[in-house]
Amino acid sequence: MVNVHFANGPLRLPETPHALTPEALTAMLGVSEEVGLSREDAEKRRRAVGSNAIEARPAATWFKLLLHQFMTPVVYLLAGAAGLAFYFNELEEGGAIVAVLAVNAVIGFYTELKAVRSIEALRALGAHTVRVLRNRVVSRVPAEDLVPGDVVVIEAGEAVCADLRLIEASRLAADESTLTGESVPVEKDVQSVSQDARLSERRSMLFKGTTITRGSGRGVVTATGLATELGKVSRLIMEVDAGNSPMERKLSRLSTQLVGATLVVACAIAALGLVSGQDELLVIEAAIALAVAAIPEGLPIVATLALARGMWRMAEQNALIERLSAVETLGATTVILTDKTGTLTENRMTVQQLLTSSGEVVVNANPPENTLLLRAGADQELSLLLTVAVLCNDADLENADAEGTGDPMEIALLRAGLTANMNRSDLLFKYPLLRKHAFNPTTKMMGTVHSSRDGILIAVKGAPEPIINSATGVMHEGSEIRFDEETRSKWNNSVGRLADHGLRVLACAVRHQPQEPDDPFHKLVLVGLIGLQDPARADVPEAIRDCQNAGIRVVMVTGDHVATARSIGRAVGLDTSEGNVVEGRELHEMLRTGAPALRDVGIFARVDPSEKLTLVRAYQNAGDIVAMTGDGVNDAPALRQADIGVSMGLRGTDVAREAAAMILLDDRFSTIVKAIREGRIIFANIRRLVAYLLSCNLSELMVIGLAVAGSLPLPLLPLQILYLNLVTDVFPAFALAMGEGEHRVLNRPPRDPKEAILGRAQWRAVILHAMALSAATFAALGIGKWLGFDQRASVTVTFLTLAFAQLWHVFNLRSRGTSIFVNEMTGNRWLWFALGLCTLLLALPPYVGPAAHLLQLVPPTAQMWLVVLFSSTAPLIATQIVMLALSGTRPNRS
What we know:
Low-confidence stretches: 114-127, 365-370, 889-894
Helix content: 40-55%
Structural class: alpha+beta
Oligomer: single chain
Number of strands: 26
Strand content: 15-25%
Radius of gyration: 36 Å
Number of helices: 32
Shape: elongated
Largest sheet: 9 strands, mixed
């Protein structure tokens, strides 16, 4: 028990109210069913337990988000370089470095400002008024004012605003799909259940955030706010740390490695310069240049723009990306944990099979309008079965394409009737309704009494077992035949067979009497069985095959029954063999056997929210990159924990959408496959642009380091390097990120999640390219000295040579084996635009006075431009010759 202390002593709050009788519960909570709480007592309890609201943890302030942008090793290094520049009165260099830091911080701040709003969405679910009995008077109060012990009156169409233990129920049913994953409304009654009953089995309880689909009742509040089952879900969300994406972690690790290497090299070069007796200011300036040269300042910007490009592409395909990194993360996905209801299925009950003594009709085997309309006209039993289903019904449906109101199963029956040209209003005109016997949880049957030409017609539908057991006959070829034990056994076996296929089974019966009997459920004549199901989406099987071809495992995780889950799994192409379907209650025992057991399971059924979260973490601990799809409140914690959470946009709850990194605007599972393809393309593009950036920056590092080591004047100044990095890094790299990718990108398995952005092969290429660029720069310096250029002119030539050599270097990034003139580089229109823009940004500054003064450049002469042209194109020509030679001796690898 949980004790809440009041001035007059503690109040015990039950931990398992579903297992207590109404009398025991009301005694424990100190409330009378007829009187309710007094206003004074309710106020005391509210002060003790707090408001009935889902409180969020304190939101991060804008200041904290802004401060977070400066908490990286790269920023520390650049800030140190700026500090040194200011200390030695190099105001221009220091100011430029600070400006770069400010630009990067603004971009990062804007991205991170889109914080997760999951808890606010949870709170919105409880923003209602509710009818409460207080001091013998029923009145409406804000839902936030509910307290444990309040007696709440509720009926169909209303939202449940707190966890309630039922003390009165009349034909009560609740839609708990967003909380438990149960695809059909759950029948409710006042009978106690066992203490260890799972959430979906607590028929004596109503839960905050669910809705009443049928009936009415009263309940005593047992939990409010975060103590409710919905509140527990919000606690799980608050406890989940979504963490960084794989790409973010790899970029962070790469940056840390670069900072460490830069510090080592800078200290070594500085020590060498001081020992050799070089000017102290020159040594410090070289150290600053090394720090600026080693760090690709444009990398955060370009990575953000590359991911944004992926986001724009996905938006065109009905996928809304909430976090930019989500696109790349999907490309690394190794397993998709998918909800069933509303994700693999349509979240709409439909009639799948009808069984009468004259035969069986599988509705989804042919177009329904042909199946039911033609068969019902020629089959008396089938026509009568649909007539009973439509007459014995509380739902409303205007036409077969409308949503309808009422119990989803009854709406499905009306839709099937309309498909067979049986309109309820027309049938009621033919068989006027005299009386309705509401669904009784004890008998598990519902009946309607109608007048007919030959007396009274009673239409009954309900659970098949009680109807079959109470029936005395069955309709066959238009007449009644007696039920014997063999016939009864056959019908019970048919019920079991339909249930094994994951269908919800209803039985329909009739009774003809001259006058209305006292007991309408006695001496029934069985008409037939109706099997209903939330059908699989038509495009899902193909999407799952695409995932499997791409080496991605798809695992269904649902709160529904095993039989239902297995049926849907079979329909969409998942492995449904006995050992591959596991219930949630078996999960913890299975996880003790280790990760290999996870790889053998295709379906997890009867899983609650905490177990979904456990599953996501288990797969992540096994080394998988996990994508989790879902649409309900019960999916939110797992969506947030997953490497990428994918929510349904049309049917998804606000909570699920806010917790997810990607929202499918069309609710199509196949859109995930498109996102996976896009993610793989994005990773390949980012790998290419990182290789480009690092080879360019490493060449700058080599130029400065070798100059200091050789006691030469600096060929490049810190401010020039910073300008180079902003121009030649950002625009060509962004153009590289715009590549369309390979057509067969989904025909290979996902990359190893532990695979670095740059492997050994890429690092070797980076170093070789950097050496070539550095050699070209020193060649230009040597030629300039030989031609008699002064110091300023020599620096101008080396600056322009390295700058244009870096631009031409993008053509070295074509896939091996492709044509020199026709490849993914020359076919990229964005790349040509970037090269043109960069050419202007590099060629104009020497001719613009303030820019030339700031960068310490002079206007190049024709002779200087010839040196630049020759030196900058030499690395490209040499590299292309080497690639042509290698393409004939090594296999083609794109």
